[in-house]
Hints:
Number of strands of chain A: 3
Oligomer: homodimer
Structural class of chain A: mainly alpha
Number of helices of chain A: 6
Shape of chain A: globular
Largest interface: A-B, 65 and 65 residues
Radius of gyration of chain A: 20 Å
Amino acid sequence: MSDPDQFPSATANTSPALVKQNLRVWLKMLKATKHVEATVREKLRVEFDTTLPRFDVMAALYRFEEGLKMSELSSALRVSNGNVTGIIERLVADGAVLRVPVAGDKRAMLVRLTHKGRDEFAKMAAAHELWINEIFGGLSPDTTARLISILDTIEHSQGLTPGEDHDA
Amino acid sequence: MSDPDQFPSATANTSPALVKQNLRVWLKMLKATKHVEATVREKLRVEFDTTLPRFDVMAALYRFEEGLKMSELSSALRVSNGNVTGIIERLVADGAVLRVPVAGDKRAMLVRLTHKGRDEFAKMAAAHELWINEIFGGLSPDTTARLISILDTIEHSQGLTPGEDHDA
DNA sequence: GAATAATTATTCAAGCTTGAAATTTCATAC
DNA sequence: GTATGAAATTTCAAGCTTGAATAATTATTC
Lengths: 168, 168
C-alpha cells in the first residue's frame, strides 16, 4: 500500500493560500464530474429513454446474476433504503427486474434482472463504455493511472463521517 | 495553452484494455466526488440545517452583491430554470434572499442575498473551506496542481453535447 | 416462551431536478 | 400600431433523494 500522493504534514493545517488551492481543486473536480455525468444522463435519456439512477441499479444487479437483497442493493449504491424501493418499483413495472422472496426470511426480498433487463442493460453498458471512452480517451495511460492514484488518496482521506468508508 | 495531458492519438479509438481503464478511472472519479459531496451535504445539514443546493445558490449570489437575474443564476449553476425558482422561493421565505424587479424589464427578476443571507453564508463558507481542506489537505501542492491540469483536459474533452461548455 | 432488541423493507413528507408547456413581456418587422 | 418571434419566468408532471417513522419479521436474552 504505497501512498505517493500523501503529503507529509498530512491533515488540515495548511496556509491560507493552500486552503484556497484545495477549494479550487475541489470545485474543479466537482465541475468535471458533473460535466461527465450530465453527458451520460442526456445520452441515456435520448438514446435509451432511461435515467442514470435506473442505469446504476441495473449495473449493480447485472454484476450479481443471483440477485441482491434490497438492503444489499442500497448499500452497494450508497443510497437510502427508501430510494431503491421506488426505482425498483418502476423497473419491475417495466419488466426489467423481478422480485423473489428469500427462503427462510419473510422480511427480505431478492431483486434481480429479468432476461429482458439483462439484454437491455448489456446494450446500454456497451454504449456507456464508448461515451466514457470518448471523454477519457484523450488521457494517456500514465495520466489515468496517476489520476486513479490521486483519487484514491482523496477517497481515503480524513474528514469522512458519512459511512466511514475504507473499503475497495 | 499547454496541454500536457492530451494524449497524442487523441479521441476515442483505443484498445479494449484502455477502454476498460477509462471506465475504471471514471467510476473512481465519480466515487471520490460523491464521497466529498456526501460529506459536505451532511455537514451542511447537521451544522447549519441547510442543503447543498441552497448553499450553491447562496454561493453564486454572494459573488454578485448587486444580484443576479433568475436566468443568470440558473445558467451560472448549470441547472434548469424551474429548479432555481423553487430554491429561491424557500430562501426568500427564510429571509435569506430578496427579489427586486428589474427597472425597464417587467419580465426579469433580480435576486440577491439579504444582509442576513450574507452573514449566514459567510459562516457556512468559512466552515466549508475547512471541511474541504481536511479532505484535500493530504495532497501536496504539486499533486493538486497536477489534478487540476488533468481535470481541465477532461472538461475540455470531446463527447460533450450538454451545454457545449468551453468556458473558464 | 416472553420480552427486548436488531434487521429488513416500505411509507411518508419535504425538497431537489429535469424537460416541456404556458405566461408574460419585450423587441422587431411590416 | 399590429403581428410575429424572442426572452424571462413560472408552472407542471414525473422521477430522484433523503432521513425519519412505521410495520413486519427474526434474533437474542432472560
